[in-house]
C-alpha cells in the first residue's frame, strides 16, 4: 500500500462520495472507481460499501483508514522537516529566560518547535542583566526579561504580564512567618525602591501602588536591577521589597509572604538584537506574535 492508495482511501472515507473524493485527490471519477475495485482485488478485502448515491467504508476499510491517516501525517511531517531544512529553518537558537518567565517561555518553545520541526530552542535561565549582557555579546539570540528593557539596539514585544503578589521580608522577623501581610503594615517601615533613572517602569508602578493604598513607607533607594541583589538588601534588614514570581531558591535570611492586596502589574518582553537577520530568530518572533495575538483574542472573547 503506497501513499497514493492511502490518499485515495482517506478521501473516499471522508467524503463518502467517489466524485468528491476524485476532485480532492486530483483524479478522474473513472480512475478512482477503477482503483477502488483493483484495491479490493489485490488485498482480498471488502473495503467499500457502495450504494447508488454514495460509498462508505466497511469496518475493515475504516480500520485501514485510521492507520492510513497516521502514516500520511508522518509523511507530511517528514516533508515539513525537509522543507524547513531547505529554507534554512534548521538549527538551534539560544534564548535567555529571566526568573518567573517560564510560564511564558515554554509555550513559546513548544509552538516554535511544532511549527518549525528543524528548529530547537535552547532555553538558558539567567537573571535579567546577565540575559541582556549575553544578548549584546551574541551569546544568546533572544531573551525574555521583565521591565525595564534598553531602548537602543534591541527589538521587543510584550510577551505577557505579571503582578507582584509577594513581599520579601527579613527572616527571622515579625512578618516572616505570616500567612498573609497587608500593605498598611509597611507604613513608616523600610521599603526598597529602584531609582527611577535605573528602572522607570518598576519605580513608578511601586510608588503608585503604595500611594493608591495610602501607605507611606521609608523608601530605601537602590540602583540594583537584579532580584538576587535586591534580596541581599532584604536579608541585611535594609527593607522589604515587592517581588515578581520566581522559581529560583531564596537566599538565606529572606522569606516571601503573600500580599493581601493585588500588586502592581509589570511586563515580560521578548527582546532581540535589531542587527540579527537570522531566519531562526525570525521564526521565534513570528511564533511569539501569534501566541500573544491568540491570548488577546481569548481575553477579548
TrEMBL record:
CDD domains: PBP2_LTTR_aromatics_like. Gene3D superfamilies: Periplasmic binding protein-like II, Winged helix-like DNA-binding domain superfamily/Winged helix DNA-binding domain. GO terms for cellular component: protein-DNA complex. GO terms for molecular function: DNA binding; DNA-binding transcription factor activity. InterPro entries: LysR_HTH_N (IPR000847), LysR_subst-bd (IPR005119), WH-like_DNA-bd_sf (IPR036388), WH_DNA-bd_sf (IPR036390). Residues 1-58 form the HTH lysR-type domain. It holds the Pfam family LysR_substrate. Keywords: DNA-binding, Transcription, Transcription regulation. It comes from the Bacteria. Belongs to the LysR transcriptional regulatory family. This is HTH lysR-type domain-containing protein. It comes from Actinokineospora bangkokensis. The lineage of its organism: Bacteria, Bacillati, Actinomycetota, Actinomycetes, Pseudonocardiales.
Amino acid at each position: 500500500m503506497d501513499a497514493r492508495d492511502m490518499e485515495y482511501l482517506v478521501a473516499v472515507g471522508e467524503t463518502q462520495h467517489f466524485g468528491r473524493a476524485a476532485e480532492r485527490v486530483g483524479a478522474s471519477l473513472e480512475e478512482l472507481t477503477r482503483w477502488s475495485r483493483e484495491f479490493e482485488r489485490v488485498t482480498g478485502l471488502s473495503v467499500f460499501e457502495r450504494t447508488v448515491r454514495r460509498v462508505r467504508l466497511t469496518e475493515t476499510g475504516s480500520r485501514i483508514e485510521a492507520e492510513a491517516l497516521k502514516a500520511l501525517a508522518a509523511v507530511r511531517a517528514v516533508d515539513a522537516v525537509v522543507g524547513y531544512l531547505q529554507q534554512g529553518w534548521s538549527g538551534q537558537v539560544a534564548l535567555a529566560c529571566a526568573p518567573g518567565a517560564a510560564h511564558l517561555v515554554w509555550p513559546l518553545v513548544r509552538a516554535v518547535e511544532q511549527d518549525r520541526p528543524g528548529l530547537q530552542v535552547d532555553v538558558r535561565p539567567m537573571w535579567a542583566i546577565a540575559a541582556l549582557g549575553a544578548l549584546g555579546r551574541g551569546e544568546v539570540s533572544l531573551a525574555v526579561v521583565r521591565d525595564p528593557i534598553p531602548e537602543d539596539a534591541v527589538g521587543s514585544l510584550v510577551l505577557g504580564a505579571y503582578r507582584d503578589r509577594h513581599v520579601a521580608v527579613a527572616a527571622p522577623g515579625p512578618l516572616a512567618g505570616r500567612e498573609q501581610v497587608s500593605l498598611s503594615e509597611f507604613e513608616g517601615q523600610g521599603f526598597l525602591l529602584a531609582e527611577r533613572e535605573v528602572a522607570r517602569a518598576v519605580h513608578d508602578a511601586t510608588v503608585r501602588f503604595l500611594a493608591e493604598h495610602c501607605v507611606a513607607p521609608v523608601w530605601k533607594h537602590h540602583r540594583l536591577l537584579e532580584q538576587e541583589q535586591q534580596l541581599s538588601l532584604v536579608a541585611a534588614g535594609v527593607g522589604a521589597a515587592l517581588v515578581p514570581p520566581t522559581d529560583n531558591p531564596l537566599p538565606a535570611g529572606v522569606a516571601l509572604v503573600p500580599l493581601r492586596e493585588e500588586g502592581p502589574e509589570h511586563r515580560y518582553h521578548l527582546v532581540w538584537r535589531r542587527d540579527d537577520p537570522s531566519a531562526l530568530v525570525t521564526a521565534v518572533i513570528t511564533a511569539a506574535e501569534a501566541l500573544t495575538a491568540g491570548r488577546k483574542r481569548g481575553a477579548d472573547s
